[in-house]
Design brief:
By secondary structure, the chain is mostly helical. The protein has two domains: 51 residues, no CATH class; 36 residues. The protein contains five helices and no strands. The chain is rod-shaped. The relative contact order is 0.07.
């Protein structure tokens, strides 16, 4: 991998660059052999896919719960309205 390609990769994936900087042996491996960057990127990407983002799941669940509550409220209002109309 060329230096220009590596810069582009780091710019597109700042988390990857931070992950590399955590271990000096990774930095040394890339400096010694820039082609190793693609292998390390694959390893980082595979590792990242296995991580479960509980914060994101919690936010999505909360949002879905709020939407369902709103829909339920609307349905109850419609039901009350139809009951009032049938009583008349």
């Amino acid at each position: 991998m060329k230096k220009k390609d590596m810069k582009r990769l780091f710019k597109a994936n700042p988390d990857f660059e931070a992950w590399l900087m955590q271990d000096p042996s990774r930095v040394a491996a890339i400096r010694a052999n820039p082609a190793a960057a693609s292998d390390l990127f694959k390893r980082w990407n595979d590792r990242k896919k296995g991580i479960i983002d509980f914060d994101n799941i919690t936010q999505k669940t909360k949002r879905a719960s709020e939407m369902l509550t709103n829909v339920q409220s609307i349905m109850e209002m419609m039901s009350d309205y139809s009951k009032k109309q049938s009583e008349r």
